[in-house]
Design brief:
This protein is of the alpha+beta class and about 150 residues long. About 30% of the residues lie in helices and about 15% in strands.
């Protein structure tokens, strides 16, 4: 489902009700503090309209969302003296997406902060053929269709 959705989506409810702790509210994207932050200043960036994940979000909305992610990250470096950030996003079944509304976690990081947001193992999934070649072929086919 895209665009406006029912209030069954927790993020749509927050956006509609205005009840989040807002860091920024823009036309296409907004930023707010999650309920259980991983670090001081941890921020969620979400499109203001409902899109389930990266697969159904229009490119212009992705651009607006990532532009806000960059602004939030820059503010973390300036205001919180963060030396880096992790930008986390899960989309679709199997990705551990917790809320079915596209969102980006922007987590400020400091050297020796004691957390890791990087996967600790590798996938057990095995894929026939050469995944790199298959991806390259799929991307090139998609590119040629747009010419």
């Amino acid at each position: 489902m895209t665009g406006l959705c029912g209030m069954d989506c927790v993020f749509c409810h927050l956006i509609h009700e205005g009840t989040a702790r807002w860091m920024a509210r823009e036309t296409e994207a907004c930023a707010f503090t999650p309920l259980n932050p991983l670090a001081p200043g941890h921020t969620l960036v979400v499109p203001t309209r409902h899109y389930t994940g990266v697969f159904d979000t229009p490119p212009d909305v992705l651009t607006a969302s990532m532009t806000l992610v960059q602004r939030v990250a820059t503010a973390m470096r300036t205001a919180l003296d963060a030396s880096g950030v992790n930008i986390l996003c899960a989309s679709g079944p199997g990705s551990e997406q917790s809320v079915p509304h596209l969102h980006f976690h922007v987590v400020p990081r400091w050297v020796d902060d004691g957390i890791s947001t990087w996967p600790t193992g590798i996938s057990r999934r095995r894929h026939p053929g050469d995944p790199g070649t298959q991806l390259s072929d799929a991307l090139n086919r998609g590119h040629h269709h747009r010419s």
